[in-house]
Each structure stands twice: as C-alpha cells, then as structure tokens.
Amino acid sequence: MGESSGQQTALAPRRREPRPPRSTARRITYWVGIGMILAGLALLGYVAWQLWGTNWVSKRHQRAITHQLQEDWAAGQGCDKFCPEGKASALIRIPKFGKKYVVPVLEGAADGTISGDILSKGYGHFALGLPGGGAAKPGEIGNYALAAHRVTHGEPLRHLPDLRPGDEVIVETRTTRFIYVLDTDPNKLVIPFTETWVLDPVPHNPDAGEPEPKQAKGQRLITLTTCSEIFHTDNRMIAFGHLKTVQSKTVPKKPAG
Q1: Please, what CATH class does the domain formed by 49-248 belong to?
Q2: What b/e string do you get for 22-35 counting C-beta neighbours within 10 Å, with b at 16 or more?
Q3: Residue 44 phi, psi dihedral angles, 5° rounding
Q4: pTM for this structure?
Q5: 59: burial class by Cβ within 10 Å (0-12, 13-18, 19+)?
Q6: Domain ranges, ordered by start, for the chain
Q7: Contact by Cβ (8 Å): 123, 156
Q8: Of 23, 27, 141, 157, which one's alpha carbon is 20 to 30 angstroms from that of 244?
C-alpha cells in the first residue's frame, strides 16, 4: 500500500563533494594580493603621516618654542647675537599670512647647513660658512637667509607663492623688530638646490634677465627659501627683500630677587 497522506518521505542527505586541492600558483597569487593590499595601506598611512601627522607635531613644537622664547625675553634672558645651533633666536611674522602667524627661527650649523630636526620646528637660519663670506644676523649688512618647509612639517612657507613685492616680513629678536619688504615675486624665481648664489651676502643671479635682489654692497637683505619637499622636486622657491625699518622694543628688566 502507498504511504498515508500525513507521512513525509525522508530526504537522503546530500553528499559533499571534496574540494579540489589548491594549486601552488593560486596560493602564491593569494598571498601576493594580500601583500599588495598591506603595502597599499602602509603607503596611505605614510602619506597621511607626512601630510597631516608631521604638521600636527611640528606646529606643537613651534607653539612651545615661541611661548618659551617670549617668556625668556620678558625675563631679560635668551640669546640674541650669539646663539648656538638649534637654539631659537628670533620670531618671524608675515602680516599677509594673518595676525596669528608667528614662527620661531632656529640657528643652523656653523658649516652653513640646516638639519631636518631644525626645519621640523620652524625656520632655519643659514648661520656661517656660506659661499662669499658667511651669513648676516637680523638687521646686519649682508644676507639674512632663512629656509622653511612649504609642504609638511608645519608648513611655515605654505603660502609663499601668495607673497608679492611690497609685502612685509617682520623679524623680532629679544630687543628689536626688523621690518623687511619683499622686492621679488617668489613665483618668478625657482632654482635647483645646487645653486647657492641666493645665500651670498650680495646675491647675483648667473642667469641674465632673471630675478635677483635690488641690492648693492652695504645693504641689508633677507632671503626666504623653501626646502626640499616630499612629492616635489628638489627645486627651491626664492623671495628676496630689503630692510626697511628698525624698531626698538621695550624690554622689561628682570625683577630683583
């Protein structure tokens, strides 16, 4: 007799077919793919660190150094004319960059080089040992030459291309404010890093007809130069200016006791 209507026929379990073994080539392709994904993530992390992380760290250093330098000056302390390598010697203000823009200047090495550590904390001053007889300090006859990053590490010169002749650069030391005025458009002078004539006391451009400072022997010059930057060439953007005004500061006396 047939099965009753209330009865269900039991289904036989489905047999699982064994998986075919993976070939060596497939395993290699799989792990190569994983490796490429991890490498891509690492590269993205590195780019993010360079573009955002270094700025965050460097700006903290800049604020801390600026605050400490101002406190030292108020107490009648801090170096002025004779500052060792890595020591903050001045503050830079560029009105066109906004009222809050203030970045410390740290002294470079005696051989005229500026380390990456210094450039990660603000401007670096080309101190001594430069071609043509050395470098000037703020307000002195010669060339007060500074370098700073335009991309990453705080980006003090991020907006250098926005500056034009007539814009001011204010250099503040413990006792004095030196107000320089730019003579050249930085967009019109970009040089290879091997050209050091821009650091001479009286720079003379070897390329006839190209921008150079309106400068004569005995004048006081400032030079702003960008550093070698990530994802950029080793070219430097240059701006020249001359000293316009010197203002003495009222330096509070250190309290007795």
Answers
A1: mainly beta
A2: eeeeeeeeeeeeee
A3: -65, -40
A4: 0.75
A5: middle
A6: 49-248
A7: yes
A8: 157
